[in-house]
């Protein structure tokens, strides 16, 4: 009886050992090198592979691991057999004892889902017995992005490709793309209210990603009624570009009150203040009047010769004290129809020759370099989202409840021969878009 029990225990241990070593073949998609950290895509990876939508390369890795007892042979036999149309896909296979990595690349931009390609392990390349029911086949299909990757200008005919975007779907601010504006906006005195000064402070807690939108808040600080808090982000130290097409979609549904102005703008680095840089305010919104302002700001160290009538709202060369004013600006403004009841798109097309402003797809302002070269910048500039507060369009201290502005996305496009500067993780690595392939 004791001998019988020992035999049964031995058999049981063998069965356990067999089952422990009989795990299935695993197939795993690795997007770590396919995903460009500056391109934010809506995922459709459930059926296999999703293109990454970078301007010049789409790629990924399929990692296949064999269970215990199976090994890849050191042979010329291909590890994988492909069934389907794979002519436009470049494959590279790296095989070791129990793992094979299939690297995929394609330059084809899909507009509809591709036909599926079945990827099957080649039995002739495997040492050991493939048992019935093992997962020996993977499925590959390419999906188009739900985000437009190309913009063709209806005005200039230029074609632009997506090089930087954020769909604000992560639930947190992506710090690889954005810095919070609080670092650039110190505690600032903005005006007087009831014979007392008040202050404005931009803080990251007033900057949120919620339900697929960037939300910027304007409200009084809970314990100090003379302090107004706001939010904002900028691509400083992450992404700077010159020329291209820049677009956002905004909602002013909760923009109530006065004395603040949500904005989407493109700003120069301080080193270019007196040189090639010009601030481009793609839009600023005044809730009290439901007006949109599209403004340019630049600085000169010498008096400009233009008559003030030629540049709307331009600053005088000299103030009342006789001091020369460096700041210059020109603007166009208009009332926005259905300002709070619907979302609105705002964009600027920036070429070496001109700036074209769009509101809901319609041209609302054009500025040509021939009229004033300084108004069309040629410096590398950063992207801003902000909600400033003060006394423009009323006094912000009059507001009794918080106000919010929402941004659905930020999308930046460039022509294929233009380049941008990308700085990754603060290490100062700058990469022009023309040389960018995959993850930096």
From TrEMBL:
A GO molecular-function descriptor: licheninase activity
> Which SUPFAM superfamilies did the record assign?
Concanavalin A-like lectins/glucanases
Instruction: Give all residue intervals belonging to the GH16 domain.
Output: 153-418
Q: Does Hydrolase appear among the keywords?
A: yes
Does the keyword field hold Hydrolase? yes
The EC number on file is 3.2.1.73
From the UniProt record, give one GO term of the biological process aspect: carbohydrate metabolic process
Q: What is the uppermost EC class here?
A: hydrolase
Please indicate which superkingdom the organism of origin belongs to.
Bacteria
- Report keywords, A-Z: Glycosidase, Hydrolase
Gene3D superfamilies given in the database record: 2.60.120.200
**Family (UniProt):** Belongs to the glycosyl hydrolase 16 family.
Protein name per UniProt? Beta-glucanase
* Species in which this protein is naturally found: Bacteroides fragilis
């Amino acid at each position: 009886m004791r001998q019988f029990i020992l035999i049964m225990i031995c058999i049981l241990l063998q069965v356990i050992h067999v089952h422990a070593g009989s795990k299935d073949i695993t197939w795993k998609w690795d997007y770590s090198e396919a995903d460009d950290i500056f391109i934010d895509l809506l995922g459709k990876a459930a059926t296999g592979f999703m293109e990454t939508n970078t301007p010049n390369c789409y790629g990924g890795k399929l990692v296949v691991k064999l269970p215990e007892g199976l090994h890849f042979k050191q042979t010329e036999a291909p590890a994988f057999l492909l069934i389907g149309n794979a002519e436009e896909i470049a494959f590279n296979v790296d095989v070791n004892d129990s793992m094979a990595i299939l690297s995929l690349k394609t330059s084809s931009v899909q507009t509809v889902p591709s036909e599926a390609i079945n990827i099957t392990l080649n039995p002739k390349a495997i040492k050991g017995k493939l048992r019935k029911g093992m997962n020996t086949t993977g499925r590959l299909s390419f999906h188009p992005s739900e985000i437009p990757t190309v913009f063709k200008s209806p005005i200039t005919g230029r074609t632009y490709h997506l090089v930087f975007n954020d769909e604000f779907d992560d639930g947190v601010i992506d710090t690889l793309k954005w810095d919070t504006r609080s670092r650039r906006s110190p505690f600032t005195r903005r005006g007087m209210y009831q014979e007392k000064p008040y202050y404005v402070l931009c803080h990251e807690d007033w900057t949120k990603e919620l339900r697929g939108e960037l939300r910027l808040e304007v409200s009084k600080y809970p314990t100090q009624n003379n302090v107004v808090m706001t939010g904002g982000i900028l691509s400083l130290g992450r992404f700077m570009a010159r020329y291209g097409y820049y677009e956002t979609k905004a909602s002013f549904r909760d923009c109530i009150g006065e004395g603040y102005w949500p904005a989407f703008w493109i700003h120069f680095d301080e080193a270019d203040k007196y040189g090639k840089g010009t601030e481009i305010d793609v839009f600023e919104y005044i809730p009290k009047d439901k007006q949109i302002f599209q403004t340019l700001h630049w600085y000169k160290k010498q008096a400009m010769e233009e008559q003030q009538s030629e540049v709307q709202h331009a600053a005088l060369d000299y103030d009342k004290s006789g001091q020369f004013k460096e700041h210059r600006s020109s603007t166009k403004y208009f009332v926005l129809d259905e300002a709070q009841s619907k979302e609105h798109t705002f964009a600027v097309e920036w070429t070496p020759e001109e700036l074209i402003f769009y509101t809901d797809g319609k041209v609302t302002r054009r500025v040509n370099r021939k009229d004033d070269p300084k108004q069309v910048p040629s410096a590398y500039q950063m992207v801003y989202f902000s909600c400033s507060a003060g006394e423009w369009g009323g006094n912000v201290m009059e507001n009794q409840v918080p106000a919010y502005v929402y941004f659905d996305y930020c999308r930046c496009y460039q022509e294929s021969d233009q380049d941008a500067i990308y700085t990754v993780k603060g290490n100062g690595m700058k990469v022009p878009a023309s040389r960018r392939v995959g993850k930096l």
